[in-house]
């Protein structure tokens, strides 16, 4: 378990040395969320309706921006190869990297989304639900995305390829994440959506490090 | 008698087998297809509610079955390829993908053609349609990934992993009808209860499904032969082939 915390700590420290890269994806999220009212129009009723979806799509794209960085640096300076050769469990190390990605790309979104939600005139309950759904959903995005990142490592056109591979797999998270807020707004209650999000999170946490290590082994063999 | 399961796993032996099989399978596909279409368009009666427009079912349903089944077949070959490390498995997966993508596209297209007269719309965002679309994207993603990696072995293995990960999506498609109760009608054919359609319609659909099966097997055999020759071109047996000798590598 030690190796897990070591990797998390190392990745966070590395990211803190280059803050701009982390902030870029957060700014991207803010800018994307701002574009929609400008394109669609400022009517509060309309904004209330599209708000959760827009913020969720923004979150999806923002987490994807960080994916290609997940293994790229380590791949280039050779530390990834050392990780594969080390006697420690590769799965745990990969899980550490996924966690670090989530802390850097997911957590800021969870915190920022309610603030941006105010621009969309969402009610207080909806804002809480938006944060909750992102809190449960963004780790799934990091987990699934990590598999795509591992498979496209060092492949030409990797950036666009990741989005082709990963976005279709993101769809269920998007549907239930944004759906949770909409269900709450429409008075149905979001319990079912939250349960399904949780049901997607647990297997993702379990299987992703394993599949991701297999992907890394294929990429580096 | 011990069955030699892996005899045809060698590209050399499978190459010969595929050469033998594909013309027969292609002929079978044509014969079954003609019979199925004849039943579907000439013999089957018009539907009580949907009139003549329902006849697209004879293409739409088998095509949708195939699009899901081929993805499962890809996942099957991927598991085999990753566990036994056989060369042929990767080639089979690669050969299946374009056909699967074609069937997924056809399923969406014929579905749209059916939806317009019946529901009054080309497209609804219902779970089954949406997951079929996602399946189509999965095929595209698989083909994009495998064609982006130059090293054939790595491409096969990476593709195998993404195919297995994506295979989780196929059961979601199938069960989405039960999970979400939306505009799309329930499954037309069920194994547990008697079918809700006339016997003749069922026959037409089954014949079409078998025809598409035969077509898929034929085209996969054909495509795998090309892949084998391309990848094994450095070997002596490929160089000795009558259809290859004389052609510059």
Describe this structure in words.
The complex is a heterodimer of chains A (about 220) and B (about 250). With about 220 residues, chain A is an all-alpha fold. Chain A has one domain (about 1-220). Chain A is built from 9 helices and no strands. The longest helix of chain A is centred in the middle third of the chain and has 30 residues, at about 90-120. Chain B is mainly α and about 250 residues long. Chain B has one domain. Chain B has 8 helices and no strands. Chain B has helices spanning about 10-45, 55-85, 85-120, 125-150, 150-165, 170-180, 200-230, 235-240. Classes of the chains: A mainly alpha (about 220), B mainly alpha (about 250).
Q: How many distinct domains of chain A?
A: 1
Cα end-to-end separation of chain A: 26 Å
**Low-confidence residue ranges of chain B:** 176-184
Strand residue content of chain B: under 5%
Largest interface, counted with CB-CB under 8 A?
A: A-B, 23 and 21 residues
Number of strands of chain A: 0
Beta percentage of chain A is: under 5%
Biggest β-sheet of chain A: count, sense, barrel?
Answer: none
């Amino acid at each position: 378990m030690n190796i897990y915390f070591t990797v998390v700590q190392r990745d966070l420290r590395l990211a803190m040395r280059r803050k701009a890269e982390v902030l870029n994806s957060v700014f991207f999220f803010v800018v994307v969320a701002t574009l929609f009212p400008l394109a669609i129009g400022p009517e509060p009723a309309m904004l209330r309706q599209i708000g959760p979806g827009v913020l969720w799509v923004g979150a999806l794209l923002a987490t994807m921006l960080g994916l290609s960085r997940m293994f790229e640096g380590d791949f280039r300076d050779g530390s990834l190869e050392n990780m594969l050769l080390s006697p420690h469990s590769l799965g745990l190390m990969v899980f550490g990297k996924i966690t670090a990605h989530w802390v850097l790309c997911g957590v800021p979104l969870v915190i920022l989304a309610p603030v941006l939600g105010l621009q969309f005139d969402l009610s207080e309950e909806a804002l809480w639900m938006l944060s909750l759904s992102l809190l449960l959903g963004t780790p799934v995005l990091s987990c699934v995305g990590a598999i795509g990142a591992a498979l496209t490592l060092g492949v030409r056109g990797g950036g666009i390829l990741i989005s082709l591979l990963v976005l279709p797999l993101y769809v269920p998270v998007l549907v239930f994440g944004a759906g949770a807020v909409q269900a709450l707004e429409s008075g149905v209650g979001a319990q079912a959506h939250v349960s399904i999000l949780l049901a997607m999170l647990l297997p993702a946490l379990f299987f992703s490090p394993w599949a991701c290590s297999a992907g890394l082994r294929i990429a580096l063999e | 008698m011990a069955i030699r399961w892996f005899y045809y796993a060698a590209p050399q032996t499978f190459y010969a087998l595929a050469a033998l099989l594909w013309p027969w399978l292609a002929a079978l596909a044509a014969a079954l297809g003609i019979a199925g279409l004849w039943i579907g368009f000439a013999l089957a009666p018009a539907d009580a509610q949907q009139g003549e427009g329902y006849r697209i079912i004879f293409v739409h349903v088998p095509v949708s079955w195939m699009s899901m089944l081929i993805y499962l077949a890809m996942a099957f070959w991927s598991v085999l390829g990753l566990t036994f490390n056989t060369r042929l498995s990767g080639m089979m997966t690669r050969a299946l993908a374009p056909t699967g993508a074609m069937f997924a596209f056809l399923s969406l297209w014929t579905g749209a053609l059916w939806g317009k007269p019946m529901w009054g719309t080309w497209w609804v965002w219902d779970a089954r349609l949406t997951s079929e679309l996602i399946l189509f994207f999965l095929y595209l993603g698989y083909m994009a990934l495998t064609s982006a990696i130059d090293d054939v072995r790595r491409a096969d293995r990476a593709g195998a992993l993404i195919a297995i990960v994506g295979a989780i999506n196929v059961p979601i498609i199938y069960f989405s009808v039960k999970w979400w109760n939306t505009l799309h009608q329930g499954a037309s054919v069920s194994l547990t209860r008697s079918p809700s359609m006339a016997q003749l319609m069922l026959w037409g659909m089954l014949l079409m499904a078998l025809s598409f099966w035969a077509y898929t097997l034929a085209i996969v055999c054909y495509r795998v032969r090309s892949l084998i020759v391309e990848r094994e071109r450095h070997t002596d047996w490929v160089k000795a082939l009558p259809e290859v000798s004389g052609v510059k590598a």
